[in-house]
Model the fold of this input.
Amino acid sequence: MATEEIRVRGTVQGVGFRPTVYRLAKACGLHGDVCNDGQGVLIRVSGSEEAITKFVARLQTECPPLAKINQLTRTPYEGKSKFDNFVISTSVSNAIKTQITPDSATCLQCQQEIFDPFSPFYRYPFTNCTHCGPRLSIIRAIPYDRCNTSMSAFVMCSKCEKEYFDVENRRFHAQPVACHVCGPTAWLERADGKSVTASMFSMLDDVDAVCTLLQKGEIVAIKGLSGIHLACDATQEIAVQKLRQRKKRYHKPFALMARNIEIIEQYCIVNAKEKELLTSSAAPIVLLGVKEKNGYGKSSFTTNSSLLTPHSFHIASSVALEQNTLGFMLPYTPLHHLILRRLNRPIVLTSGNIADEPQCIDNDEAREKLEAIADYFLFHNREIINRVDDSVVRVVGDKVQTIRRARGYAPASIILPPGFQKAPQILAMGSQLKNTFCLFREGEAIISQHLGDLENAAVFNAYQETLNLYLNLFEQKPEVIAIDKHPEYLSSKLGKELADTNKIKFYPIQHHHAHIAACMAENGIALDAPPVLGIALDGLGYGDDGTLWGGEFLLADYRKFQRLATFKSVAMVGGEQAIYQPWRNTYAHLVAANLWDDCEPKYAELEIFQFLKSKPLKLLNQLIEKGINSPPASSVGRLFDAVAAAIGIYREECNYEGQAAIAMEAIVDISSLNNDKETLIYPFSLSFSDSIYCIDPRSMWQALLNDLQQQIPQPVIAAKFHKSLANAIVEMVKHLCQENLINQVALTGGVFQNCILLQQVTKRLETLGIKVLTHSLIPANDGGLSLGQAVITAAQLIHES
Done:
């Protein structure tokens, strides 16, 4: 006989792990106990060595669906307890080293119950079990027990209590377990304060009434799992436009939800990987290619007739302006399943907020802020502790690309490569835009959910609240703080304040080095591995020389980097104005390329030339010459804006950064893209000066203006630009790899969310035998920056020690 103590770390609380341990221990004839504690799950087993080994093997292969074992260690049991049975013991509070499970989509068994008239959970909108339901959104503290969640306000009825304590039941210790008798309730309110009566609708209950309201063209604010959404019928153009106007979200695409995959397939091409993502426990928004001739953008039906087949309904053109993709998700709570039960068409389901503010999570807050947007509210009385937006992903080739990491994924930890286990606790503050922060401990990184753009005061306040919540949840006491080098980022300023207050060091990390380090870390590159060639293309980042970077080739490991090459710096005329007025970038590029003076005689008839002549060019020239509010930037993001404006895409104004580039990607002519003729390549020049190589787009602009003069169609020019840029990048990589004896390249930064550019560069590099690292688990954009800041700081600290 042997007695062992088995320590299991990872995502092992609130996921049915202890019942699985109990079942397997019984099956293997073992005695002992199992409990949750701050480090994960602790198991003590007594039996034959053969039985214990079999038990451990089965535990790893028969893990519950939401569980993830990061570490399992076996040691001889030194205690005096004797076991004559196997039991599940009470949770123990001690140092927090375990993980919090992300919120999880409704499992199939719970779905079946809410539609089964003979089930106690029939039409109950908060049905859940250990395999699904709220986690991060309702938790206040670890261990994940009911008393530490917002479910503590609801006392279980005898039936729910029986299931909760039945180790053979899938609701055993499911902390949010509840039913019609004892749990949260949902109700409908009118935004104008008037009463809602059942006679107003043909409905089973208030949740069912939402379906009728949506069909009638109403806008409904729906309190869901981790935030409040605004919903309307996606096939009614008037309803969608009304939502845009009221919400003041005039251009960004809206997310869609449909009852099932079959409805989504009426509008989009869905491959096996995309279907897997849609139906996963994370249930993210998946960007899908629009089917040709599917009616998208045509006049929408406004009839409420249920006799029309799904493909009879055309999605309103205002849902996703100038896009060739739609962002779809499936229902991920019983509430959503019940609302969509009768709907054979998609609905818009977008964040319940005024443009750029955080999503509302509180009933009173929603009444105040959304009363001018929503016609009705569907509320419930389960408190949302932690605001978590919907995640956004897409499939590029055969690889998942995360665009926004939030519900369903956060705060699951990322296990770091070998060498990082000795680093101290680190807090990395992230960026100014698309912010996340990162907690670093014992070789793993816990990245927060997407928090948004900190320039909005409400978002910055929410960022600080979420940071405090995480620090308390995980009992983190950072020994150092990592920040971005940009002196004006609010996250950097806050990081400095925290460091000063707690009398600890802060480490300023260069923006693009952080991008590259994040890509290295998620691809498992070891701490002591040789440098990679990192290509970081984005909008802007503060460079080591005090200028703005955005098109960088860095020879980098985790501790340091060397800037080998860049794109030619061009003035951002008007500073931040250049981000939202793309024509400014076009003019600056033409001036930098010494082509503007040639425009008068040669390109006078071009639309872009006439447009730019109407601008105050004398003033702009003075700004450029004197460097007044026109900082030079090597930004590839601004290069995309400049080209888009030149060919007539969002020339005058953009509503959000990258809008012009996204629209240009959407119109690319695929046949021109795949044509290998040299005539379909714009030339970029490569030069060397001041110890750095440079990609200069001057010759590209000359050729592009010639194409405009010959009235080459927009889609063809867009295709040529994408292909030509990829070609220029690859030519530079070939040269740098040969010169520096490198064979591994990391592609990162927000510009590489452009699928066409990413695929073009990746394919060409792999053809040359170069290994390409790209993002999957975390965003290539600034949402992944905090991970890079953390690993660089850890590497420097380990090196110093």
In short: The first strand starts at residue 2 and ends at 11. The two ends are 45 Å apart (CA to CA). The chain is about 30% helix and 20% strand.
